[in-house]
TrEMBL record:
Location (main, coarse): membrane
Pfam families recorded: TonB_C
Name of the protein this chain belongs to: TonB family protein
Organism, scientific name: Pseudomonas sp. WC2401
Compartments it resides in: Cell inner membrane
Record-level Gene Ontology MF annotations: energy transducer activity
């Protein structure tokens, strides 16, 4: 028995050699090339027949039988005839007296103007009328009446002094009444944050809503009565309440009275400062809502 250690070195090599791999790869490549050459064929595409074109003309007469080979297309069948060796377009049999190969623009001559016959002027006959003698007109005498003289009014100095004193007293009285008149500034819900006293109105609204929700009318909560009304609240300079008026009723006397009571409970308010310092009375007009959820709010 021969052991592997007794074999020569060239026979005792284990595994696949690089030469074996190269030979196997060349063999596979040759098989693939043969398969491609044998399996894939090339064929030339037959050219498509070219369609014939025919010119279009007008036939001069109609034939019962269609020609086997037509030279032109026309509205009717027509058998060819004549003495020409090549095809020619049918033409009219009439011969023009004048022939030319080029087309020229022809303008017709202007029409002759009709002759006007001049007639001799007729002699005018003039007649002279006898002159009419005019008598010189006499100037008319215009009578002018003298305008009546305006009477100069007479004034009593004592009466004028009393009237002037009365007017001065009346003017002084009006000035005093105007000076005593309070300076009122009215604000509505349409005022913006840039309006005079807008900050005061916003703080006042928050206070009314807070007091109103704490003192919401119990009967309205129990009976589910809702609505909205429009109030005018007048506030004095020191913040005290001047008056509360219902401008638009809610239709529910309970809600109208509750809104007035809430405003009176929230008084007094903050005194006027800042841009409201020169105001004697502030009037605020807002719409108040008693809405579902038993909430009082103002828009």
């Amino acid at each position: 028995m021969t052991l592997p250690s007794d074999l020569p070195p060239e026979l005792s090599h284990k595994g696949v050699r690089a030469a074996d791999r190269l030979g196997f790869a060349l063999f596979v490549a040759a098989l693939l090339h043969i398969a491609v050459i044998v399996g894939v064929g090339f064929s030339m595409e037959a050219p498509k027949p070219v369609s014939k074109t025919l010119e279009i003309t007008l036939s001069t007469f109609k034939s019962e039988k269609a020609p086997e080979k037509a030279d032109f297309l026309a509205q009717d069948n027509q058998q060819g005839s004549g003495t020409l060796d090549k095809k020619a377009v049918p033409k009219t049999t009439e011969v023009a007296p004048f022939q030319d190969n080029s087309v020229k623009k022809v303008t017709p001559p202007p029409a002759a103007k009709p002759e006007q016959t001049q007639t001799a002027p007729k002699a005018a006959v003039t007649t002279v009328a006898p002159a009419v003698k005019k008598n010189p007109s006499q100037p008319q005498k215009v009578k002018t009446e003298a305008a009546p003289k305006a009477s100069i009014p007479t004034f009593d100095s004592s009466q004028l002094s009393s009237e002037i004193s009365s007017l001065e007293a009346e003017l002084a009285n009006e000035q005093q009444l105007y000076a005593k008149r309070p300076k009122i500034y009215r604000m509505s819900a349409a005022s913006t944050m840039r309006d005079k006293g807008a900050w005061y109105k916003e703080d006042w609204r928050k206070k009314i809503e807070r007091i109103g929700n704490l003192n919401y009318p119990e009967q309205a909560r129990r009976e589910k009565i809702y609505g909205k009304l429009r109030l005018l609240v007048s506030i004095n300079r020191d913040g005290s309440l001047h008056e509360v008026l219902v401008l638009e009723s809610s239709g529910q006397p309970l809600l109208d009275q509750a809104a007035q009571r809430i405003v009176r409970l929230a008084a007094p308010f903050a005194p006027f400062t800042g841009d409201l310092a020169d105001i004697d009375r502030l009037e605020i007009i807002r719409t108040w809502k008693f809405a579902e959820g038993d909430r009082l709010s103002s828009n």
